[in-house]
User: Fold these one by one.
Assistant:
Number 1:
Amino acid sequence: MTERELARRVRHRLAALRQAEEVSGNIAATCRYYSISRQCSYTRRRRYEAEGLGGLKNCSSAPLYALPETAVGMTVMTDGTT
């Protein structure tokens, strides 16, 4: 994704936050208009308040933890009999 596309997404997310706070005052209506969930809206607002515009950039959706190396390759083998 190019820098221009990232900047466009940040502007779009900022517009949604401003719409909810300054214009409508209604989070649910704003989320319906922008086709985002309220949970997403609250997450973006919290990140924006904490980090500024940098908080509106894409961030990883990878899990915060990973399985231990030993558990990744483990499989259960059965011979089909009980």
Note: Helices lie at 3-24, 27-34, 38-51, 69-72.
Number 2:
Amino acid sequence: MSSLSTRCLSAARAASVHSSRRLLSTTRVVRDAAAPDLGTIAAPKKPVGAFRGGIVGFLFGFSLAASFAAYHLLDEYKQASAALQASVEELQVSTQKVSAHVRRIEAVEKDLKALSDSSATKEDVSRVRAEMKKLYDGLHVEFLDLRSHVWGIRTTRCPLSVKRIRLLFVLSKQIDRVFRETTGWRTT
């Protein structure tokens, strides 16, 4: 039986080789011409296995999720960057305000120092007050001397009536009051 099977196989091989050489035309030119290309037959698709389909699905899902996460991360980065930029601009504006306030304070301190250097101290005021009081007291003493002198001259030289003496006394009091008001000092 084995000899029969080997003979069948050798006959089938010979027939297949013989059939591939067999042409419809017997002329040599037609035999040498190339056979027209009718296209290739698509190989039958292998069915996708569960393991290979799982890996492809996992990789597709992972890349989709990664791209979605990268998009959201980039969006959050842009928002944080914009918030940081706004914060920096706000800080710059507040820094400019603070520096303007500092410049104003320095100008006020400079003016205050100039005023304190040119203003009088308590000792200066008390010294000037004492000098004014001495001057006023001296003027008042001279005024009283003058009044007594005028009074003495009037009483000795010409006899005056009581009415005129009172008038002179009232005038001297008014002169004394005007003198006190203009100088601002009280008589003692």
Note: Residues 121-183 form one domain.
Number 3:
Amino acid sequence: MPRKTKTVPARQHYTKDLKERVIYQNFILGKQPTAISIDLDMPLRVVQRCITTWKEIGEVCHDRKYKGRAPLLSTQHTKTKPNFDSLCLALIKHSPDIYLDEIQDQLYNCHEVDASLATISRTLHRLAITSKKVRPLASQQSSAGTLCVISSWIGDEPADRIVCADESAVNILTSYRHNGWSLKDLRSRKRCCFIRGTR
């Protein structure tokens, strides 16, 4: 028959005010640690440790040793030094299909910002920018020119004829990247040149 695993109690945090009550009941009221543990519904070990800490340093708890390092990336936007979010947004706006390591290189070479790939990825996720399939748009395409040609074709045909217009085919088997960055719930678009040379 398998033995039951021993349940480990969850670590509970006690406020500074509650620990000061321990000191008050011990030194002012003269209660024993066991009675204090019952009155305040605290483990006996926590009461004993609180009393020991008070005797050593005169406080109920030690100062935190590890408060975390200061952020290396600036969170304030100035004219001379833009913040990290605006730099990432500008790079993605310029090249929607850029890779994370390319963003890292651009930040270091142009702005001397040394950021890890995880930091860049978390920043993009916080800004609601996701990676999705990019939609290539022909850079030679002109909406005004297309409407002008279609209207001229339709105008030359007789009224009893049905006219259908279709765009010319393009070669999608190119070396362009298939994934790009854009805001959430929006498509990722990039204008590409599908032909070489001049028409």
Note: The chain has two domains: 16-57, 74-152+177-199.
Number 4:
Amino acid sequence: MLDDKIVAIKDQPSPDEDEVLPAHTSDSDDKSITDQVGNLVDDVRKLAEAELEYYRTKLSVNMAATKTVLLLFSVAIIVGATGLVALILGILLILSHYWGPVAATALLTGSALLVTTVLLNMAIKRARKLPLDENDP
């Protein structure tokens, strides 16, 4: 089997010594380099399109997750506010048996306003400490 291949190689005619084939011409080199640069540009374009599609897909997945988180956060705030209202009404009903409806309402309203004032003052103090501009000390 190996002998057949060796014989086949020996049977091929060798090029004549008078015929000299040019190894490469400048036109073929220019076309080759031009083709290579064109192929490189096409490959870069395809890579950029693939990267763009990847980041679009990643962003859409992140947006879907963000929407879910915001929806859950909104529902939690609504349920928490509803629970807070129920607590206030429950305390109001309990206190109205001991102090009467007017005094219980005044006590709860005053307490809620006091807590709101304290929390707002804390928020304002912390907001004033925030650096709003990088050049400000």
Note: The helical segments are 2-11, 26-99, 101-129.
